C-alpha cells in the first residue's frame, strides 16, 4: 500500500502554487478542516485519520518523474522554469499542525485540524488531508454507533470486500477499530496498524467439500478449539446437529442469513443440550446499528456481530460535508484574520480553538473561540499541537490505545446525543471574540473591498 504523494492533490492547487512561486510569495496562511453539518443520522462524529495524515505530511515530496509529468501539463505551461527546477524538487511540508486527538467526539463547525504553513504548502496538502480525515472520521463514527448498539458484545469489522479498493479497506478497518470494534477481518490492516484480526470460513469451504460433515471435521482438525464454523450454507439446524453428533468443539458457530433472532435461539438450545455451552454464536449478514440494536433488544443469544458494508462504506453517510478553509493570512509579518461571505458557505475568521465543558462527568457543551482567547473556566482545550516546522511532536499512539480513549470520551456524551434515531443536538457556541471579529470583518467586507 503506497502512501499518498505530492500528486495527491487537485490541479488548481498546483496552479495556485505556481502563482505564489512566480510572485515570490512566502507568506503563511492558516487553514482549518471542519465539517459544516452533521449527517441527519448522526448526533456526533468521532475524529479519526490524524496519524495517517501526519504520516503523509512527514513524507510529502515530489519525485523526479512526477515533476516531469507536471511540466507536461498544458495548465502549467505558464509556470516559470524555476517552479519545476527549484521549487518542486525541494518541496517539503514545513508547517505547524494542531489537531483534535483521534477518537474524540466532535461536532459541526469545530476544527478537527488546523494547518499554518506557507500558502502553497498548506493548499497543496488540502485534498489528501480532507480525503484521509473525513473518510476515517465517517467510518469511526459509524463504528461507535454500532458498538453502542451491541451493548458490550464484540463487533468485528468484516467490510473489506465491499470497500472502495484495498487501500480504503485497510483505512476503514483502522477507523472501525478506533471507533470501538474488537477486531477486523482485514489482514493488511492487522499487519499495518497492529489490529486484532478475526475470521471464520466462507460458504465455499462447505460447498467444496463432499458434504457438510466432512467440511466441519477437516476444518476442526486443522484449527481445533479455535475453529469457527459457518452453519447456514444449507440448513443451520441440521448443521448444528451435525456438530453435536460429531463431537466437535468449535469456539463458535456463525449465522449469516435468515431470522437471526429465531435461529440463534434454536442453535443455542441444541448446542447447550449437546454439551457445547461454551461454543459461542456469531452473526453477520448486512448488519448495521439498527439491526444490531433490534437483536439485542430481542435478547437473542448472540455473542458477537460481524458488520461489513455499513462500516467500510459508511453507508448511512458515505461522505461528510467537510471543508478546508483559509482563516488567516500573513501580511507584513502578521497573521491577519480572513473570512468568506459566500451565501450558505460563510466561514468564520481567525485561528480557533475548541473548549469542552463537563458537568458531573458528562460533556455539557463546546465553545469555539479564537486560539488566543482564554477558554471558559475549567473547560478542556481540544486541539493540541502535533507538528512544528514540519516535524512531528511525540510518538504515534497505537490504535488500540486510541480506541479505549474514544470509548471513554463517547461515553461522556449525553445519552440523547448518542441515540441512534433522531439524536439530540449537542450545544456548540461561538465565543464572544469569534462573534465580534466575524461581525467586524463582515461589515468591512460587505462592500466587496476585500
Folded structure, characterized:
This protein has 450 residues and is α/β, with parallel strands linked by helices. 39% of the residues lie in helices and 19% in strands. It contains 17 helices and 19 strands. It has helices at 11-22, 50-59, 64-72, 81-87, 119-124, 126-150, 166-178, 187-193, 203-208, 212-223, 236-245, 260-273, 289-297, 309-312, 399-411, 415-418, 432-445; strands spanning 28-35, 45-46, 96-99, 105-106, 113-118, 155-157, 183-184, 228-230, 252-255, 280-283, 304-307, 322-331, 334-337, 352-359, 362-370, 380-381, 384-388, 391-392, 428-430. It has a 7-stranded antiparallel beta sheet with strand order 13-12-1-5-3-17-18. A 6-stranded parallel beta sheet has the order 7-6-11-10-9-8. The longest helix is centred in the first third of the chain and has 25 residues, at 126-150. The model has no long low-confidence stretch (mean pLDDT 96).
**Integer-rounded radius of gyration:** 26 Å
Biggest sheet details: 7 strands, antiparallel
Shape: elongated
Strand content: 15-25%
Strands, helices and their partners?
Layout lengths: L10 H12 L5 E8 L9 E2 L3 H10 L4 H9 L8 H7 L8 E4 L5 E2 L6 E6 H6 L1 H25 L4 E3 L8 H13 L4 E2 L2 H7 L9 H6 L3 H12 L4 E3 L5 H10 L6 E4 L4 H14 L6 E4 L5 H9 L6 E4 L1 H4 L9 E10 L2 E4 L14 E8 L2 E9 L9 E2 L2 E5 L2 E2 L6 H13 L3 H4 L9 E3 L1 H14 L5
Parallel strand pairs: 6-7, 6-11, 8-9, 9-10, 10-11, 15-19
Antiparallel strand pairs: 1-5, 1-12, 2-4, 3-5, 3-17, 12-13, 14-15, 14-16, 17-18
Helix pairs in contact: 2-6, 6-7, 6-13, 7-8, 11-12
